[in-house]
Specification:
Length: 109
């Protein structure tokens, strides 16, 4: 009897993990090709289209532009065009999905 309970508990836990994995995967898939703003540990900000990620939280952005951290709070500075960029996960401070990108999805554009 003990063995059956352990097996059933393990099976149930595996099903819960699988559904959580499916939900997380679905959320990530919905973010594909959305415009994202990624702040990095060195103060730079990259803006581009979310193309993919991996288990180490590395992120690949397409059509990326780099914005340097300005010392003057009034000037944002000119962006530097990078194109395809890979951001190592350990350098990511924050990730924001730009609201314009989400609105286009909800309105079916």
């Amino acid at each position: 009897m003990e063995t059956e309970r352990e097996e059933n508990g393990t099976e149930m836990q595996t099903e819960v993990e699988a559904s959580a994995y499916s939900l997380a995967r679905c959320k990530l898939e919905n973010l594909l090709n959305k415009s994202m703003r990624i702040r990095m540990t060195d103060g730079r900000t990259l803006v581009g289209l979310f193309l993919c990620t991996d288990r180490d939280c590395n992120v690949i952005l397409g059509s990326a532009q780099e914005f340097l951290k300005s010392t003057d709070s009034f000037s944002q500075g000119e962006p530097r065009v990078l194109g395809l960029a890979m951001i190592p996960g350990h350098h990511v401070v924050s990730i924001e999905v730009e609201s314009d990108s989400l609105q286009m999805t909800t309105h079916g554009l």
